[in-house]
Amino acid sequence: MNFGPETQKSFVDTWECDENGHLNIQFYWKRFGDAGQVFHLLMDQPHKPWIDRHVRYHKELHAGTNTVVHTNATADQEWLVHHLTDGENGNISATAVDRLIPGNADTAFPDGQIPDQIPDQIPDLAKARSLPTALLQPIDTRSVLEDGRGILSHRSMVEPQECDHDGNLLDQQYISRFSHAAPAFWQHSGATRGWMDEHNLGSVAVEMKATKHAAITAGTALEIISWQSQTGNKTLTFRHQVNEVATGKPLYSGAVTALLMDLTKRRAVSLPDFIRKSTKS
């Protein structure tokens, strides 16, 4: 599969960068969201929303960098692959694989009826490395709260300006909530903001996916329950589930593989024992 046409071109502004001094994850997803819609326009096709998106972050992007997204589709038009590159040197900064809502549906959310296998056309660089390829399935989050593994990590209202022209939550806003929930999870694990500052560390996502379960519109109150799913020497994988506050209905799920990065050397460090112990308890 070649990269396909240019579907989004932009520039990293300082206000898009986070406390680690690089482009925040929500703005990667904004670029991918734009790219998907532009691709369908260029192909003279009706836009098909994604139901599941998997992203791998390969290189950091900093303020002042030009960015370019190229997008292409599989032969059956059921998958999109995005390559986000540094516009100056062509280095790949991130890849995204969008599993589109099947058929001609634009609002249906099938309950696990989509095959798990991904097409051979998906390039290896974009394939899942530490996260499942299958759609994430919602759970009864009361169980992880009651046994202490999970925490309430975020609550917010969906505002009209966070939604697109059809009234649905923008891609960026799905992931901005994960970005804001992650510090609460790290704090729960013992890695407080003060501890990170003392050791000159930042928390960084290296792989991420999200699965939609239902449409989200303005006026909806959301809450995120977060819990650990796997711990390695340098990486920690955790789950987010976003529920509607009023009903408890699952709206979308996320999985994140993250690490702690030395902010001077820009390299991953081993997770401290207290994190591994806390996430196994």
- Radius of gyration over alpha carbons? 18 Å
Please describe the biggest sheet, giving its number of strands, its sense, and whether it closes into a barrel: 11 strands, antiparallel
Give the termini distance in whole angstroms.
44 Å
One letter per element, helices H and strands E, the order comes to EHEEEEHEHHEEEEEH
Proportion of residues in extended strands: 25-35%
Please estimate the helix content.
10-25%
Q: Tally the helices: what do you get? A: 5
Q: What do the pLDDT scores average to?
A: 93
Q: Globular, elongated, flat, extended or rod-shaped: what is the shape?
A: globular
Computed structural class:
alpha+beta
Stretches where pLDDT falls below 50 for ≥5 residues? none
Give the beta-strand count.
11
Please explain how this structure is put together.
The protein has helices at 25-42, 142-146, 171-189, 193-198, 273-280, and strands at 6-11, 50-57, 66-73, 79-86, 92-100, 150-157, 201-212, 221-231, 235-244, 250-262, 267-269. It has 281 residues and is an alpha+beta fold. The longest helix is centred in the middle third of the chain and has 19 residues, at 171-189. It is globular and about 50 Å long. 40% of the residues are buried.
What's the layout of helices and strands?
Blueprint lengths: L5 E6 L13 H18 L7 E8 L8 E8 L5 E8 L5 E9 L41 H5 L3 E8 L13 H19 L3 H6 L2 E12 L8 E11 L3 E10 L5 E13 L4 E3 L3 H8 L1
Antiparallel strand pairs: 1-3, 2-5, 2-7, 3-4, 4-5, 6-8, 7-10, 8-9, 9-10, 10-11
Helix pairs in contact: 1-3
At a glance:
The chain is α+β, with helices and mostly antiparallel strands. 20% of the residues lie in helices and 34% in strands. Strands 1, 2, 3, 4, 5, 6, 7, 8, 9, 10 and 11 form an eleven-stranded antiparallel β-sheet that branches.
